[in-house]
Amino acid sequence: CSQYCRPEEARQAILYSYSYGFSGFSAVLNSTQATTLSETEEVISVFRSRMLQLHTTRSWDFMGLSLHSQMEQPSSQMHLKYGDDVIVGILDTGVWPESESFRDDPHLGPVPSSWRGTCVGGQQFDPATACNRKLIGARYYLAGFEAETGLLNTSGGAEYRSARDRVGHGTHTASTAVGAVSPNASYFGGLGRGAARGGAPRARLAVYKVCWFKDLTGRCNDADILAAFDDALHDGVHVISASLGSPPPLSPLFATSTEVGSFHAMQLGVSTVFSAGNDGPDAAMVQNVSPWGVTVAASTIDRRFPTVIALGNNASFVGEGFIVKDMKTPLVESTSVFADGTCSLDQLVNRTAASGKIVLCFSTMGMVSGEGAALAVYAGGGSGVIFADSSSRRSNQDNFLPTVHVNLRQGTHILNYIQSRSRQRPTVHVSASRTVVGSTPAPAIAYFSSRGPSSISPNILKPDVTAPGVNILAAWPPKSSPTMLPLDKRSTEWNFDTGTSMSCPHVTGIVAILRSVHPTWSPAAVKSALMTTAYVHDDTSDAMLAGGTQKAADAFDTGAGHVDPLPALDPGLVYDADARDHVRFLCGLGYTEAQVRQMVLPSPALDTSCAGGAIGDADLNYPAIVLPELRVVVTVKRTVTNVGLQRETVYHATVISPQGTHVEVWPPALAFSPRCARAEYYVTVTPAKLSRGRYDFGEIVWSDGYHRVRTPLVVRVTNLPDAGVGAQPTNQHRDTTEY
Questions:
Q1: Please, what are the domains in the chain?
Q2: Pick the catalytic residue: 334, 363, 449, 501?
């Protein structure tokens, strides 16, 4: 900048100086200045800061992690902790410190001596009262946001220039991950009633506000995110949770703040958990795809909110909704209100027809959402909505205007009733919703959850795992309405929210528990424990369903499967990898040594050279094997470490080969002893003579009779120019080998 601006202008251009995690800065530069700076010998690289988006009670019990959970193995000697003295950093929209989830608790003991952070004051955020033994730190970052969008609007409580949460998202995610036990939590005094808590209720919370309320959503700037990572690692957090991201096309890993920050975290032994994104069910839309972070998809739990709809002809249907009181009103179809029958604001033509009535709306091939229909009907003076959509896409949520979700078959029956009563006014009685636990099948992948494969490194399975992310009840700022719509004046301290933003903190809580039980495990070992113990079946023992489709879920929907907290504490074997392994992975992606150094926290102990060290991304010691273009016989190596209590043990392999391949594992058995805790094995995958041209799925399972260490195996055979020629039938017998 010195060639083009005076020293004072240079100082004013600086937004952040990154001094803890790595040497660098963010600044406001024009294109000429940025180009000149990038060509300076001392500068490794320059990349543009982007704006990222947020990924928007019963769940812990559903996963088997009650407050009284114990390890199943009698000889375990492994005491289940709930995040004791683990510090979790949440990068999000801030926190509502007065929430019951973050109350001071003398039973927590003093703040851990390893904590080096602070509680920064600001607008309506007094450190003396906001922070305590639970909420031990809070910071906020908006230099990047304001450089991109202008001065923050704080008038009338539009936002807070502090760590206080205006959006609700950060309070919700923090409460889900580490919130204290709060009895009698519910949504508006009824739905979902029970004890709300985080997965690691004894963990400490540090909040880093990097996302700000603008245009009815949260916006997060790269420069602010990187500054927060820098501070969080200096402050001494043990786990970082970030429910945010940017959809494809994805930037290179070295030019993405979350990937750079999480790489630094991995180097320091800190696990980072990300949301996968909400752009499903299309393929390859998954975000946050680095192998050193944990990427979480979203799935359902076994709780439903059935809502009875009784028509004037005594026919009744059961939909789902958040209806807090009975409604009995006239009923009309959408064509009476909207020009083309589509429940959207631009088609509203007859307000009189909707006034005081419940309107039946259809999703119209997914072109209209339940929220959009509710707003359109509200604008027409309607009193409620019955919203019909495909059962695979149904997602119950609070739309401000009372809304009941039904499937297309039910919606068609209701439409037939309305049309048959041309001379009599159709009526409907909607009963208040109830809370029902134990509904099956569950879990199922949420239709919106972003799917794999990774668009940057398809040999790395993404997402990694799935966790509860639909209708999650957690803490909420009472000064923020449950929908965040300007016309919504309601107030609640607990709110339902849905998204991979909600599944991410579930895994964060589990990682905090793992950290408290196994403080010396690396982030790679922690991720391996989550992945190899995950399950892929629902509570009916059938394959999980993939919402938004009519098929069973596969590894690009679920990752390795649904997280299972208790088995993850004692996984038996883990796949470990260190910073050098990940440097070699980056070299294998074709990144230059200069680009690799941009990712890395400078350390004399870490070799960042690529000479002779690059590995293919399939050869990274990852807890999954993905071969997206198998043309010839391929052999990959994996290394496992025995972390079980039985140091002298033997594991045997069972293989299910993906269709169109034959898979062999050598050696077929792995022996461990107190002096030999690590073992290598090789997987040879042979393609069929004819190409299938699509992905197929199998697995490798190692077992010692107690532990079951499952590794997903994903293969796409492409050994013919025309992938469609000679494709084998999908129901062919699968090659299963036991050793």
A1: 1-50 (no CATH), 77-301+444-554 (3.40.50.200), 306-434 (3.50.30.30), 572-577+621-723 (2.60.40.2310), 581-611 (no CATH)
A2: 501
